[in-house]
Amino acid sequence: MNYRTGSTNDLDQLRELGLKSWSQYKGDLTEKNWNKLFASLDNYDTYLELLEKSDCIVCENDTKEIIGMAFLVPSGNPNEIYDAAWCHLRFVSVDPKYRGNSIGKKLTEQCIDLAIKNDEKVMALHTSEIMKNARHIYEQIGFKVLKEINPRLGVKYWLYTLELNN
Q: Which among 76, 112, 122, 161 is least buried, having the fewest CB atoms inside 10 angstroms?
């Protein structure tokens, strides 16, 4: 497996991976909330906006198919969840056929390394009650729950942070 920087040249594969990866949650959401998530995952603008303001790291298999992705949004991009002083992790996704190979963990660790290189002080992310495997990985790496945030898509979410030792 090869890890590299993702770009707009990868747009089709990023969208396909998003749809493949996140479809596992369809049964955990109401039809209305799944349709809302699906519309975002299926929209090229979702990935273009992330590519414009963040660093993208992808994992490819031996045939150059993208099987994992993560986006590191630098500090200075606050929203209703994230403080302006924090960088934050978005859309860590792994193709279901490749789960169990530590790809999500490696993508997260590479984003942490990049954040440290960029002199970031705190990395944040949000994740939900239906993303048990992701929560386990983040907690294993050292992310701590800062607080519960407003539900999204009808499920409980938490804001996690990780102090980066620069």
A: 76
Domains recognised in the chain with CATH numbers:
2-163 (3.40.630.30)
Query: Does residue 113 sit in helix, strand or coil?
Result: helix
Sheet of 66-73, strands arranged across: 2-5, 55-60, 66-73, 87-94, 122-128, 155-163, 144-152
- Residue among 9, 16, 24, 58 at smallest CA distance from 41: 16
Distance, CA of 101 to chain centre: 17
Give this prediction's pTM. Answer: 0.92
Contact status, residue 14 vs residue 29, Cβ threshold 8 Å? no
144 strand-pairing partners: 161
Q: Which of 15-19, 26-30, 158-162 has the lowest mean pLDDT?
A: 26-30
